Amino acid sequence: MTTLCYAKATCAIGIHVLMEEVGKPYDLRIVDFSKAEQKTPEYKAMNPKGKVPALIRDDGSVLTEFAAIASWLAMTNPDKHLMPTDPEGFARTLEALDFVVGTLHMLSWRVFRRPDAYSANPAEHDQLRARGKEAVLAGLEIVNEQLAGKDYMVGDFSIADAAMYYVEYWASDIAGWPLPANVQRHFDLMKTRPSVQASRKQEGVA
Predict the structure, then answer these.
(1) Where on the phi/psi map is residue 57: left (φ > 0), alpha (ψ -120 to 50), or beta?
(2) What is the pLDDT along the chain (206 residues), one digit of tens a residue?
(3) Distance of alpha carbon 70 from alpha carbon 53, whole angstroms
(4) Which among 15, 33, 49, 204 is least surrounded, fewest beta carbons within 10 Å?
(5) Predicted TM-score of the model (pTM)
(6) How far apart are CA 164 and CA 57, in angstroms?
């Protein structure tokens, strides 16, 4: 059975949502970052990057990185329509996904997780968090414009929306920031999906 290696309040939330969208049986393996379980020899033997998400597939092979796992789930479950198949829709989905994962996600590290990754000087950490928040909010305004007149990132629900959900979750539920109107509407819509409700139950939020 497929196993998803998952840690709370990480981007693995988005892959959990997609696993629920697919609807096939899977195991959820919790990796406790507070105990540094991602750094244990056992975990790093499976995923040397020491990150989540990691997907252990039925044949025992391991797939890592959000975009790779999300794309694989979409392509191996075409009946779930998690990614457009026309060239324009496919490209726009990758474009949206890359912005969320490669830009918004990484900027959020300065705020939520690792200002020390950017400066060894603790006196600079508050400034890094402030600049990180400013950059994330600016990125959310870009997404806000892209969502104008649309329910989802590229029209219908796709892997890009699962990625966007975890950024919204961090910004709204963890940081308590107000979201731009269209982003808030997207977040509210996502929370009506059973897949997201299952994820929120796992996270322990209403």
Answers:
(1) beta
(2) 999 999 999 999 999 999 999 999 999 999 999 999 999 999 999 999 999 999 999 999 999 999 999 999 999 999 999 999 999 999 999 999 999 999 998 777 656 656 665 556 776 667 777 777 888 999 999 999 999 999 999 999 999 999 999 999 999 999 899 999 999 999 999 999 999 999 999 999 97
(3) 10
(4) 204
(5) 0.92
(6) 24
Q: Where are the alpha helices (DSSP H) in 6-147?
A: 12-22, 41-46, 66-76, 87-99, 105-112, 125-146
Distant-in-sequence, close-in-space partners of 190: CB < 8 Å, separation ≥ 6 = 161, 164, 165, 168, 196
Structure tokens at 89: 């829709």
Q: Which amino acid is at 175?
A: A
**Beta-bridge partners for 29:** 5
| Beta strands across the sheet bearing 27-30 | 27-30, 3-6, 54-56, 62-64
Please determine, looking at this structure, whether the domain spanning 87-193 carries the CATH number 1.20.1050.10: yes
Cα within 13 Å of Cα(74), Cβ side: 21
